[in-house]
Specification:
Chain lengths: ~170, ~550
């Protein structure tokens, strides 16, 4: 595209009236008074619907008998780019491998969702939630019990209406 | 079928493994006939009798295999190492086919790859694919080969065989589902330990490895090796179960510290803790094997009761100091004492460099005696199938090195007692490494100066004039001399706590200050000083010792060995 130059003539001072512009502005304001268009969202009384792939605080899926689905395979701490997952594996009384310690530091987490993507047993998920304020910093390290108690929906890895990402 | 092959291969295996140690000598004596062949378009010349698999390894091509292991016989039953040889009617197992002149071998031809793909699919018919909970995951041959050459998706519709897990006794746990029936473990027991405790029961697709009735692997002293040679996660260590993932572990070449055999090992560490010990191949010392006694004793490297800062005892008080201040205080104490007789206790768990620095310091201070105490076992534990490998009687890695440096052994077989004349000594008492756990508090009350260089806090030496934190062998570079006089290097696997430094560095700095010269700053220099002092180390340096060690010129007989 060729570069073109447009010269704008500056009106001489003292020969311009601002009345027209002032009326134009007032007209817009008055129109909104008569016919209001709401843009402001009344949060927290009103909640936005989160996108299905919104990535927020984590959720640990639980078996029917209340055990965590995690098998302590160690892939999520390996893949985590922020190094925010601490995992110590062990064996429960039924001989199953399970996490003795599973902690996620939500402050360090960058919510990339790779832990969910890499999980071979679909145990750890990032969730559709963002309201996670706390009074102390150490409350942001979520341990296994807390992750299992999270009740918000988990994030979908892909858009259900477009599973192939087309 | 599997059992028969194993037995047939037994005699052959004995030959190969026994020859393993003597192979180098044989090569030197007789001129071996050479054969020229082509592997994957690369022409190479190898001695006649080499197998295709070894020749391919020399050429830099790793042919996938399960049943073949360099230390065992080759039954050629895993069928994964089949390669295409031009002129042969079908693919040949490369682990048993020997080279021939003018042979043209393709390991990556369409036929070979298609065959491997097929064989791997069969392996996965019953394999549970429980990689997330399998301890072998990350160092598993099946995982690697299937990832590289296997099918993306299985086609099996039948339910997989489920066997659960079985306690084989000792430190070994058996997950039957994961087994690929390579029978390496059975062959190890038959050929190397020569104590057939494992066997294949049932046939065909019901075949499974098992022990005989209630005779488990607790009767074996070398059973840990079957865990190492298992290519999949069928045999796993109870001690290591669920402890760490293979890819998290850092591997550092080291020497087993639990007897004077000096087996070459790797220390596997994570978070500055040793998680396990694995053998490192050295055909001159331990082949591919280490004993269960040595393998199981690594916990002391993770001990938490460590000295972390130099402590100076003055006016009834212990004060922690920095290195410079503490060494200056010690130097001024030595200067005021003048020449005095020294009695030193060292530990054979410390390196040649450290022990050499002690003997240099003893000489500089006015001469004296250096003793060491070392635990001893009643009997050796030999491995019948590998000559020259045994758990030795002397249960410390550097007894020979201490003897070569002129230290004498005192005390009993539990490394206790024998320090009566040190207790009343009125000169300088120097202790390296030995925490004197059997001695009463306030050791050597009449001594003019007591210096303790140790890794661990000691109640006997809690009021020593100087306590210096030093690193253990796992935290520093150095050498051990094994029972046969072989000098072998090890490398730092952990970082020492707090201000702990290698003893040779601390004593070297002190000696440097006393003599007004430069002390050694690298382990290599410290070894150079030892090599100068000990005749049989003549001409040795870190480069010649290398990763596999060098037999030193002389062997001093250790009393009772």
């Amino acid at each position: 595209m060729p570069i073109t130059t447009k010269v704008i003539q500056r009106p001489e001072p003292g020969r311009v009236s601002y009345l027209r512009a002032a009326f134009k502005g007032m007209a817009l304001t008055l129109r909104h008074m008569v016919n209001p268009k709401t843009v402001t969202q009344q949060y927290p009384e009103e909640q936005t619907e989160l996108h299905p792939r919104w990535r927020g605080t984590h959720v640990m899926e639980v078996h029917a008998d209340g055990r965590p689905k995690c098998v302590a395979c160690g892939l999520c701490p390996t893949v985590c780019p922020a190094n925010c997952i601490r995992l110590v594996g062990g064996e429960d009384d039924q001989g199953n491998r399970y996490p003795i310690v599973f902690e996620i530091d939500e402050f360090r987490c960058i919510f990339c969702g790779m832990c969910q993507e890499v999980c071979p047993v679909e145990a750890i998920h990032v969730g559709r939630d963002f309201e996670n304020a706390e009074y102390t910093r150490d409350r942001f390290v979520y341990d296994l019990d807390r992750l299992m108690q999270q009740d918000h929906p988990s994030t979908l890895l892909w858009d259900p209406s477009d599973p192939k990402g087309e | 079928m599997a059992k028969k092959t194993t037995k047939a291969g037994g005699a052959e295996a004995k030959k190969t493994t026994k020859a393993g140690g003597a192979k180098a000598k044989k090569d030197r004596g007789v001129a071996v006939e050479k054969v020229t062949l082509t592997i994957d378009g690369q022409e190479l010349t190898v001695p006649r009798g080499t197998t295709l698999l070894q020749a391919a390894q020399d050429a830099g091509t790793e042919v996938p295999h399960y049943c073949y292991h360099p230390g065992l016989s080759s039954p050629a039953q895993c069928r994964l190492c089949l390669v295409e040889v031009e002129g042969a009617p079908k693919l040949l197992p490369s682990c048993t086919t020997t080279v021939a002149d003018g042979q043209v071998v393709h390991t990556q031809s369409d036929d070979a790859i298609r065959m491997r793909r097929g064989v791997l699919e069969f392996y996965l018919l019953n394999h549970p694919l429980d990689c997330p909970i399998c301890d072998q995951s990350g160092e598993c041959d099946l995982q690697d080969h299937v990832f590289a050459e296997g099918r993306e998706h299985g086609r099996g519709r039948e339910a997989k065989r489920v066997l659960g897990r079985d306690d084989f006794g000792g430190d070994v746990l058996f997950y039957g589902d994961r087994c690929v029936m390579c029978t390496r473990c059975v062959r190890f027991m038959n050929e190397i330990e020569e104590k057939p405790l494992l066997t294949v029961v049932e046939r065909g697709d019901r075949a499974v490895i098992d022990t005989f009735f209630d005779e488990g692997l607790e009767q074996s002293n070398w059973a840990g090796n079957v865990v190492d040679i298992c290519p999949v996660g069928a045999l796993v260590s109870k001690d290591f179960l669920h402890k760490a993932r293979a890819w998290d572990l850092e591997h550092t070449d080291s020497i087993c510290p639990n007897c004077s055999q000096g087996c070459n090992i790797e220390l596997h560490t994570r978070d500055n803790l040793v998680h396990r010990m694995k053998p490192r191949t050295n055909l001159e010392v331990n082949g591919h094997w280490i004993c269960d006694y040595g393998r199981g004793r690594y916990e002391w490297l993770n001990r938490g009761d460590r000295l972390e800062a130099p402590v100076v005892h003055a006016e009834e008080r212990n004060t922690a100091m920095g290195w410079t201040a503490a060494l200056e205080a010690l130097k001024s104490r030595i200067d005021t004492l003048g020449e005095s007789s020294v009695k030193a206790v060292v530990s054979p768990f410390w390196s040649n460099e450290d022990l050499g620095a002690v003997s240099r310091l003893v000489e500089t201070l006015g001469g004296g005696s250096v003793v060491f105490r070392s635990p001893r076992a009643e009997e050796e534990i030999t491995l019948p199938g590998y000559e020259g490998l045994a758990r030795r009687k002397a249960l410390a890695p550097n007894v020979q090195g201490a003897e070569l440096l002129g230290c004498t052994r005192v005390g009993d077989d539990a490394a206790q007692g024998g320090l009566e004349d040190l207790m009343d000594h009125d000169g300088v008492v120097l202790v390296l490494g030995d925490a004197l756990d059997d001695q009463p508090e306030g050791f050597a009350p009449n001594a003019a100066l007591v210096v303790y260089l140790g890794a661990y806090t000691s109640s006997a030496l809690a009021s020593a004039d100087f306590q210096f934190p030093v690193t253990t062998f796992a935290e520093q570079e150095g050498t051990f001399t094994n029972h046969a006089g072989r000098v072998q290097r090890f490398w730092p696997a952990l970082s020492g706590p707090g201000a702990a430094r290698p003893a040779w560095l601390v004593l070297g700095a002190l000696l440097g200050a006393l003599k007004e010269e430069e002390g050694p700053t690298r382990a290599e220099q410290a070894f150079g000083l030892v090599a100068k002092a000990v005749k049989s180390y003549k001409g040795l340096d870190y480069e010649t010792i290398g990763a596999q060690g060098v037999l030193s010129a002389a062997r001093v007989p250790v009393p009772g060995d």
